[in-house]
Amino acid sequence: MSIQELPAQEPPAQELPAQELHPAPGADSPGEAAHADARDAEGLSVWPRSARPEPHGDVSVGGVSLAEAADRFGTPVYVLDEQEVRERCRTYRTAFPDADIVYAAKAFLCRAMAHWVQEEGLGLDVCSAGELALAVTTGFPPEKIVMHGNAKSPEDLRTALRLGVGRIVVDSASEIARLAAITPAGTRQPVMVRVVPGIAAGGHAKVRTGTDDQKFGLSLTDGSAQHAVTRILDQPHLELVGLHCHIGSQVAAVKPYVAAVRRMVGLLARIRDQHGIALPQLNLGGGHAIAYRPGEEHLNISVLAGRVRAELEDGCARAGLPVPRLTLEPGRAIVGPAGVAVYRVLAVKRTGAHTFVAVDGGMSDNPRPALYGVRYAPRLVGRPSCAPPRLVTVVGRHCEAGDILADEVALPGDVRPGDLLAVPAAGAYHLSMASGYNLVGRPPVVAVSDGIARVLVRRESLDDMSRRDVGL
Prior knowledge:
This protein is α/β, with parallel strands linked by helices. Helix content is 29%, strand content 22%. The protein is built from 13 helices and 21 strands. The chain has helices spanning 30-41, 66-73, 82-95, 111-119, 129-137, 154-163, 173-182, 224-233, 255-275, 301-319, 332-335, 368-372, 462-466, and strands at 52-53, 59-61, 64-65, 77-81, 100-104, 123-126, 145-147, 167-170, 189-196, 218-219, 238-244, 281-283, 325-328, 339-351, 354-359, 379-381, 389-395, 404-412, 420-424, 445-449, 452-457. The strands form 3 sheets. Strands 4, 14, 15, 16, 17, 18, 19, 20 and 21 form a 9-stranded mixed β-sheet that branches. A hairpin with an 8-residue loop joins strand 17 (389-395) and strand 18 (404-412). It starts with 29 loop residues before the first helix and ends in a 6-residue tail after the last helix.
């Protein structure tokens, strides 16, 4: 399973079980089910589906040895399984054949990622002029891009208009006037209103966006959303094409989405009654949960599709509305399970009853444990061990007591400096949220597929960081 190098160019380009939570999307057939059982037994249930145990304690992903990848590209390194990303794009398109699937770029974006999701027929959801410019200069069709943000800057809006994005999601009353004022004469910019439906859902208080006590959107309960609709309809340069809502992230149950559909259909009916128009689009956002550790819950996309479609069709029939075209914005659920972060152990320290395993990365390349208390399942790779497991805390190299990557996890009792630890479910919100803390430099992203590894994003060097410092 050796690494081959590939030139820096892009490659050419089932329904799930009827249960809400399941161990591995796509495991329908007896062969796939047996493979899923084997993965569970090997502790690989939250890894990319291409992950395989190899001799001498190693694990391969996409046919590439993680130990060899660490030796060639250095550590820390993000390893991203291209085929896993593509298969997850296809899972959404199969489950929602009549909907627009728009990848949430904030989870992870680079030129190759934009290229992959475009080839798989998805649109793109961006939150800044920077994300937008990267996508468009990669060749992504701007008409398939949705622009988000609770506080879009004038530059964000001007760039969106100049490049011709397909839809801008209005998030505040002040944005309506600002956008209308800069939209060129003789044009109409398609917009949606981000509605807060009053639904609490999500894996942590900091990622629950469906209630009135957070910064996003316009409230359904206090009438702000309806007022925004009226104001947009009075603007000759803005075209209201639909409603948007996003109830939160890491949502593992279907029921909150069904409730959101019900409330949004109710608002669509009120808009029809008040203004005499039937809006043609409804965007339900994303936030679909993945499992970070074996046994954790995650959302079954096939079940979600069936329940959402039934509620939308039934609700519109009762209200006498045409069924709007759905849009969904998955990010984490597409790229999260496709990534593995690989670190090298620098120190092992036993302090009282605690054992700390320090690695060469940390909160600068994965701030999520510090922000949200996320728990991961690291694994020793690159050598075998028969030592009994010991509970340890995997910590980073940064000058913060909260720099913890995995708290109280079982690793072989003989883990030592020089070992490699691999952390699965690392594809989303790692590099995209990485920082320059302690001037460590952000890790590279290496794509793997069919035994070939290639760098998508190179390692950030000290020279990269120094060039931003203009001196005295």
